[in-house]
Task: inverse folding
């Protein structure tokens, strides 16, 4: 029971980390695209 609970918590933490990393990557891509657009004008 406790091990299962701990496993669920670990999975949720990993999912949160992955989501954070994906959000950061998207933000970075958006900034790069914006910078590229700015330099083209």
Result:
């Amino acid at each position: 029971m406790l091990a299962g609970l701990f496993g669920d918590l670990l999975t949720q933490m990993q999912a949160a980390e992955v989501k954070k990393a994906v959000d950061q990557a998207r933000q970075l891509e958006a900034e790069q695209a914006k910078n590229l657009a700015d330099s083209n004008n």
Observations:
- The radius of gyration is 18 Å.
- The first helix runs from residue 2 to 40.
